[in-house]
Amino acid sequence: MSADASAFSLPARIVGHPHDRSWIDWPQQPGAPLRTGTRPPPDPLSVSNARSLGGLPLAELAAVPGAQLQQLHLDAGETGALLRALRRNADAASARLAEATRHHLGFAGSIGSLRRPRDVAAALHRMLTRSRFLKGSRSCYPLTTATAQIVPFVEQRRPVTVMVSGFPFKQHDNGLKAAGPYPDLAELGALLRLRELARAFVELYSPGLRIVVLADGGYSRPRAWSEVFGYRDRVEMFAQLAGVSGTLEFADQNRYVAGLLGENGWSERESIRRRLRELVATLAGPPDSLVAAGEAGRRITGGLPPELLADVPGFRDIVSSLLYSVPVPAPQGTNPMRWACMLLARPDVLDGADVPDELVRSRRAVLGSAWRSAVDHLAASAADNAVGVAARYPHHVRLATVASRRGASGFSYLGGSALLPWHGTGCLDGRGRLCADFLVSLLDRGFLPVYSLELSGLGATGGQPLLMVPFARTVFADGHRKVDPELLATARLRSR
C-alpha cells in the first residue's frame, strides 16, 4: 500500500462509514462558540491548551441546550491530500532541523555522517532539546548524560536505541476526551513526529535511530484486550501511512518486561504484584473522597518500604488523575456528555441539599472506579521496583512523555500541544496545525467532526471522526459543506 496514494485499498475489517450521530447531541450550532454566563467566548480557531479536563469550565459546558452537529466527510482524494501535506511538511521540518544542528555544531556546509562520537551525541541532544520535541525542563537531560548514553552506540557504529512509552489505548471512557476507542489524527501526528526525529538524525549519523515504542495498554491497570488490540491494529496501519513501519519497533510492555525478567522473574513479579495489590487495597481502605485519598496515601507510604515507592506518584495524585479517565455512569434518558460535565465539574462533592441523589451515586461510582484503578497502578509500579525492572532494560536513551525526570529527555509527541495524543481528539486548528484537545472543548469552540471513509474508526455505537476542524475553515460547495482544501494542503505538525 502506498502511503502517498490519493486513494487507499484497506482491509475490509477496518473500512467503514459512520452513520450513528448519537454521540454528537451537544450544545452547539456550527461555527458558533458557546456563550454562557460571564464566560468569554472561546476562540473558534484555536484549541484550549488545557492539560486536564479539570482545567475546563465543565459546569458551564453542561448548562446549554443541545443541538446536533453537522458532519463533514473526506473523500479518498482529500484524505490523500491531507496525508501528503503532513508527510511533506514533516520531512521539510526534518531537513531544516538537520541543517540547523550541523550549523550549531560548527559543521555548516558539510555532508554525510559526523565521525566523532561526542559530536553525534551532541547532535542528538541538540535535537531532543529543541522546542519541537521537548517537554518539561532541559535541565533533566544535560549534555553529559546524553553523551554517556549515546557514545557507546556510536563507538560501535550501531543505531542509537531510543525507548518511549506510548499508544496504550484511546481514553474515551467518559465521552469528554474522545468519541471512540480508535486512534485518530492525533496518533498519526505522533507517528509523524517520530519520523521527523529519525529522518533528521540519520542525516548526521547514517546508522540512525532504533526507536522502540513500549505500548503500555493494560500494563499498569486492566484493560479489555480486545480494545487494546483493536487500537494497536489501527496504529500499525497509521504507521504504514506515516512511513515509519521500518523505523519504529512496537513492543507490548507486558511481553517486553516478561522477556527482560525471564519466565521465573515474570512469575515472581506477578506474584508480588498480586500480594501488593491486596496490601495496598487494605491500606487504602474503601473508596471515598479525595481528602480520604490523601489520608490513604499516607497510610500506604507508611506501610510499604520506601524503595518500592521510588518514582511512584502519590495515591491521591493517581486518584485525582484517573477521576477524569474512568467511565461515568449516566442515568437512563440523560445526555451522557452533559451528565459527565456536570459530574466532573465538582467530582468530590458528595453531599449537600442541592446535590441530587443520582448525581451523588454517579460520583461515588466514579470515585470508586478511580480508587480501584489507582490501587492497580500503584501495585504494578511497586512490583516493578521490587524486582528491579528498570535496571533490566538494555542500554538506551529514554524519552519521558508524562513528566520530565532526571536521566530522560522530556518528549512531546505533538509539540506545544499539552495533551498526549491518546488523551484527546485530533484536530487541525485554524492555522492548519495538528493538535490534540478534549472533544468537549472542541465542540464548545464550534469545531466540526470530519470523517474519512478510509480511516475513521467504527466503534460499538457508531462512527468516530478522524479529526475535527474549525467551522471557519470549511466551505460550502456542490450542495454540501466540506473542509477547506487549503487547510488540508497546509496541514502540519506544531513546531512548539
Structure, briefly:
The protein has 496 residues and is an alpha/beta fold. The protein has helices at 58-61, 76-104, 117-128, 143-155, 185-202, 225-242, 253-284, 290-303, 315-322, 336-345, 357-387, 389-392, 439-444, 485-489; strands spanning 25-26, 67-68, 72-74, 160-165, 209-215, 248-252, 397-400, 409-410, 425-428, 433-437, 447-452, 457-459, 462-464, 467-470, 474-477, 480-483, 492-493.
The helix fraction, in percent, is 40-55%
Total separate domains? 2
Backbone shape: globular
Low-confidence stretches: 1-32
Strand order of the largest sheet: 6-5-4-7-8
Assembly level: single chain
> Which structural class fits the helix and strand makeup?
alpha/beta
- What about the largest sheet? 5 strands, parallel
Number of helices: 14
- What is the rounded Rg? 23 Å
Strand percent estimate: 5-15%
**How many β-strand stretches?**
17
